[in-house]
Structure formats: C-alpha cells, structure tokens
Amino acid sequence: MATDTTDMATTPTLGRKIAGVIDDYKYPVGFLLFFLGVWTLGVRAYSVPTYVLPAPAEIVLSFEGELGNLWGHTTVTLYEAFLGWVLGNVVGISLGAVMAEFQTLKRSIYPYMVVLRSLPVIAFAPLLIIWMGINQGPIIAAATITTFFPSLVNSIAGFSSTDELARELMHSLNASRWEVFRKVKLYNAFPYIFSALRISVALTFVGAVVGEWLAGNQGLGYLILVANNQLATLLLFRALLVIGIFSTAWFGLLVLVESYLIDWENQSGGGATR
Amino acid sequence: MSLDETGKSTTDRERRIDIDGVSKIYGIDTANPVRALEDINIDIYENEFVSVIGPSGCGKTTLLKCLGDIIQPTNGEIRIDNGSAADARQRNQVSFFFQEDVLLPWRTVMENVLLPLEIQGADTSDSAVRQQAKDTIETVGLSGFKDNSPQQLSGGMRQRVALARGFVYDPKIFLMDEPFAALDELTRRKMNRELLRIHQEIQKTTVFVTHHIAEAVWLSDRVIVLSPLPGEVHDMVEIDLPRPRNEDTRGLQEFVEYEESLTETVMALDDE
Ligand SMILES: Nc1ncnc2c1ncn2[C@@H]1O[C@H](COP(=O)(O)OP(=O)(O)O)[C@@H](O)[C@H]1O
Ligand SMILES: [Mg+2]
Predict the structure, then answer these.
(1) Are both A22 and A94 inside the same structural domain?
(2) Beta-carbon separation of B96 and A179 below 8 A
(3) CB of B36 sitting under 6 A from ligand 1
(4) What CATH number is given for B10-93+173-270 in this structure?
(5) pLDDT tens digits for range B125-163
(6) Contacts of residue B116 in chain A, CB cutoff 8 Å?
(7) Helix runs in chain B, H state only
(8) Same domain, yes or no, for A6 and A141?
C-alpha cells in the first residue's frame, strides 16, 4: 500500500499478480500442510479411534455420498445466518448513526446497551423461544442479536470519527447538518461499517448455530448436536468444515468489496487530514 | 489596491470588517479560563491585505475563527459589511483557509473544488458550474490534475487545491490561518508568490495569519502584531511599499527596515 502513489498507471500483469498471491500465501499454506501432517501422524502413531479424532483425509473422504444431505442443512443455516447478519447490521448501523448524531440519545441509552451486551445470547434464547415458538424465528433473532452489538459500537465510532477541522470547514461553507452527515461523516464511517460487517460474519454463525441447538430441527448447528449425541465425529467435522468454508468465503468477499469501494483508506488514515 | 494607486488615504476607503472590543475567554466556567483575546479593535478596509503576526498562543487563530463565525467572541462585536459575522458566512461572502488542507480524500481534485458550489445548491453537472471550477483550478496551476485524488498530490499541490476550493465561489473576504505553515521552505515561498499574484489579480480583502515576518511584510498593506495572554493588539504597522510587488521588493531598503523592526518587536514579546 505504501507505494500506491508512485505509479497508478501500470496495472500488474497476470503473471506478477499470481507471483504476488503465491508470495502472500506460501507461509500460511506451508503451515497448514505441516499441521495436517502432524495431525495425521499423531492419529496413526497413537491409533486414536475415529470417534475421538479422525485423520484429515478421513474427514475429506467421508464427504462422499453425503453432499446432498449436507447441502440441505447448509442452505438452512446460511439463510438464518445471512438474515440475522443483514438485520443486525441494518439496525446496528442505523441506530449507531442516529446515536452518534444525537448525543442526548446516545447518553440516554448507551449505558443500557453496554449492560445488554455483556449478557450472553444463550441467555436470551429461552425467552426468544417463548415469544416466537420453536421455529426459525428465534434462531434468526439470535443471529441478529449477536450481530447487532459489535455493529452498533463500530457504527457509533465511525460516525463520530470526523475530525474537528473537517467539521469547521463544512461549517465555514455554510453546510447544513444533513450535508455534513451525507458528504463527510458517512464517508469517514465507511471503514468502520465494513469492519462491523466483517466481524459480524463469524458472530452471526455463532448466533445461528446456538439457535439451532435450542430451537432447530435442521441446519448445520442441528447436525452438530445430532452428531454429538451419536458420537458421529466425522459428521461433526464435516459440519464444522462447511461452516468454516462459508464464513471464510463470506469474509473474503467483504474484503474484496471494501477494497473496491474504499480506495482512499490507508493512504490518508480515513480522515480529512494528511 | 494600494494607497498609491487610489490616491486616497485609508480612512476614505470603504470599511469591510469592523472588530469592536472583541474578547474571547475559553473555558469561562472552568477553574482555568484562558483569556485568548482582550479588547481587540481593528478596522479592515476594502481590498486591504492585513497580516496578523505574534508568538504562538497569542490568539491569532482565535481572532480569525471569530471573524469566520466558527467560534463566538465572549464580548464585543464583529461587523462585516454592516452585518454580523454569521450573516457574512451564511451569505458565502467569507472564505476560511485552514492551516491544513482539509481535502476530502474520497473526492477528486475537481470534486473537492466543487464542494462549496455543491453546498450552495449549484448543479454540479451543469457545464457552466464545472467550467467555473476548472478555471479556478487553472488559476492555481493544477489543470492537469483535476481528476487526480488528493493522495496522489504533494503537500504543496494539495494546499493549492485548498486555495482553489476557497477561491471558487468568489467570496469577498479571505481569512487565512497560516495556510502554508505545514509546507517546506521552498514550497512555502512559491505559494506566497502565487498568493501575491492572485491577490494582485483578483483583489480581495484578506486577513492573513503567519509567523513568518518577511512574508507578512512582502504581502501586506498592514501588519498587526498581537501580544500573548491576554491576546492584545501590541502594534500596527502600515507597509508603505509600492505595488505591484515582486521579488525585487525584497531588496528595497524600506523592506529590510520593516522586517527588522517587526522582528525586534516580536522578539521582545517572546522574551516577556
Ligand atoms: N478550544 C480551546 N479551549 C481552550 N483554550 C484554547 C482553545 N483554543 C485555543 N486556546 C488557547 O487560547 C490561546 C490562543 O490560542 P490560538 O488562538 O490558537 O493562538 P495562535 O493561533 O496565535 O497560536 C492559547 O493559549 C490556547 O492554548
Ligand atoms: Mg494558530
């Protein structure tokens, strides 16, 4: 990023791009291979039974014939996690913007948000089930709640991050409060909003999985519970692996979208000063 | 517009800014109030270039922010064209230049310069509006960079974009708070030369805060020296050097005398 300003005209060739990717990933990939190797050898050497810890290759091979069934559960969990993520972020980011803009409101309700936040979602779950019944409702609500709090906190920080000088500039130009918000504060909040969107990917899966444990009869969280009851460790690993793959892909997509949308970050610290 | 050109004395000219008994106390209801300004009385006239110098912390920025209606004086009154400072700001008659360029990094040079017009309700897709911005960018010598983003420019170029943003809506009064202080020596001299040229071209009433005495003398019709804590007008010197000025002006005997006597004054203040 440090060399961004020197030469904007040359786009790297495909060859150089690939070389760059290899360079970025060689250490983590190397470590992964090492880790899988040690895992495999350890399991073999001590003859660990499959129900305790299967070897990596066993897990991969066990996907055979299971994909159809797994995919059904996956779409259920993705649907819940995605809906919870969208709802939690929409509410969290909007409320954060309003709270940053109206300090009285923030001072009135923020302390209670902090208290609520320190309660684990799982403590809400029985209540949610009483209110909504045993269906997808409480599961989506759990995912929404886990997403909401970090989103709110980031949003407040983002919409408050505009520095004094930029606000004085807008004031000297006779900008309205709405124009200051729309033309300056919103942009300064973007990096924080994306950070909220990224952090909450993992959290919405936590909410969805926990929700399925308590109120689900399908989905990857439900599968994990079933697998646990039957000591079906391979099934458990398959479900975990699928969650890992989708949450990583989701996260990666957000990083891509962010780097495409926010090209001024890093070069200026996101603020209006140098 | 100098005295020589108009043949009039200062008092006959139209008064633009009237600073009348202005005081500013920061943190008035705290344990340690700061008396940043104390009973300031200054009149500033049409097209006059006035510099304000003084040790740091003597209230230069505070005075300028009061003029720009960014903060309110604790006592006294500021009148600009017989209205309040707030009226002048709201009618877009004043342009405030900050010590930093305060460019919005998500906007191109062109979009940054269009910002004031946009806020004033102009249609920024209109070709006349865009032409106005382009012409201003040309005035500061950045025609080739209008579609660049600020991060791609050097500090001096960024500061020129900030100048263009302040010029573009054709305000009547410029308030400049050490706009070149963050730049290196060479760039700063170039920027001052640019400012002198622009001031001589499109005459504007200008209040220029600086701590650079030679530049103040070179640019100004009048130099005001503030003393610190409380900030008071310590001295006011008419700079009676011919206009138009140029690099040769710096070689004049009077120039050197003004510079030396003002340096003495400010140094004496610093020692207090
Ligand atoms: N917002 C503020 N709150 C409290 N004190 C301030 C504030 N702004 C400036 N001051 C104080 O007022 C005095 C004048 O400041 P300033 O106008 O910035 O001086 P200058 O621009 O000449 O360096 C200084 O002592 C400074 O510490
Ligand atoms: Mg200052």
Answers:
(1) no
(2) no
(3) yes
(4) 3.40.50.300
(5) 999 999 999 999 988 888 899 999 999 999 889 999 999
(6) 173
(7) 3-6, 60-67, 85-90, 109-119, 127-139, 155-167, 185-201, 213-219, 253-271
(8) no
